Amino acid sequence: MSLTSRGRKVVSIAVVGVLLVGGMAAWALSGHAPALIKGPLGLGSSSTPSPPPPCPLTGLPPAGGKPVPQRPVAAVKVENTVDAYPLVGLQNADIIYEELVEGGLTRFMAVYQCEDAPKVGPVRSARTTDPKILVQFDLHPILGYSGAQLAVVNALKHAGILAYDETTGGTAFTRAPAPRAIPHNLFVSTPKLYARAGKAASQQAAPKPIFTFGPKIPNPSRKVSSVVIPFSTGVSGDWNWNATSGTWVRQLNGKPMMLESGGPIQATNVIIQEVTVTASNLVDVLGNHSPEVTLTGSGRAWVLRNGRMVTGTWSRTGPKAVMVFKTKKGTIIPMAPGTSFVELMPKGMTPAFTK
Fold first, then answer.
1. Quick count: other Cβ atoms within 10 Å of Cβ 2?
2. 189 SS3 class
3. Are 248 and 334 members of one domain?
4. 208 occurs within a structural domain
């Protein structure tokens, strides 16, 4: 069958088109073609969307596939005595610090950023240690507390902390009914704390990570099943490794320390940071001097993760610098993605590990 002149032109154009498309496809597959060429051929993107960035303080994906909230941390001072148990809301925290206060007791500071907690507490008073911890996270972190001496309030203001108590925090704070009694019945809502902070919080971005996260445990490390961290005579932080849950579980009188939610206090990483503690000029109603904790310089550190312990050091070059944890060889100790519990153990104490 013979083609007309017009037919031959149509066939020629079709052949050129096929060759052109084929050449473009080959170019795109080579990886050197620009996005303008890759896009129309469907080669410039994957059908699987990229996962959202992880939460900066845990290294975990945000709950429900949501993006990381663009906001500073919101911390809450939490009591740690028998009268306060069971504690509330710690299961939602990204990081929890334990610090020494008067009379050899300790208190927790729960730090939230990626998740909220509608009820946290019982809330207690602030100390000079708190702004020293918080300034490494944000320009203006938030703190919920029950009150403080004037020197502490001034230290919080000087550090740029957005600090709120029951008087200034409005509806963020509530009192629980009996059987909880004053002063062990004050609670705070982190969503309402953020709302109370308003533009001062909403105009801030998410904090930068203060830990490095990774799957590899540095060498050398050793297997550990439990640890007792002394803070004073008769007061310690005790942890057991639970291989089933893959977490360290806080102990109370030889049993898991339970929260009001029904679960135990647990952490993926337990970081023991040896710090210098001296007596300040501030005293409580019983005449006990408030501890002054030094959080710059360097000291010994022990990092527990994945049922193992790495011995190393911590260092901090200045008041607003981030704490850095390194092995004895000088390499950064990566944390396992998850919640971290930082124990600010006084210098002169020694943790006791059980294999």
1. 5
2. coil
3. yes
4. no
Q: What is the CATH number of the domain that holds 90?
A: 3.50.90.10
**pLDDT digit string (tens) for 15-69?**
334 334 444 444 444 445 555 444 454 445 556 777 779 999 999 999 888 899 9
CA distance 129 to 152: 9
The residue assigned the tokens 């079709």 is: 14
**Tokens 């020694």 appear where?**
350
CA distances from 33 to 20, 22, 39, 49, 210 (A): 14, 13, 10, 22, 39
Q: How far apart are the C-alpha atoms of 121 and 123, rounded to whole Å?
A: 4
| Interval 90-109: pLDDT, tens | 999 999 999 999 999 999 99
Q: Are residues 111 and 175 in the same domain?
A: yes
pTM: 0.85
Instruction: Name which of 5-9, 211-215, 228-232 the model is least confident about.
Output: 5-9
Kindly state whether residue 212 falls inside one of the protein's structural domains: no
Asked whether residue 10 falls in the same domain as residue 110, the answer is: no
Is 213 inside a domain boundary? no
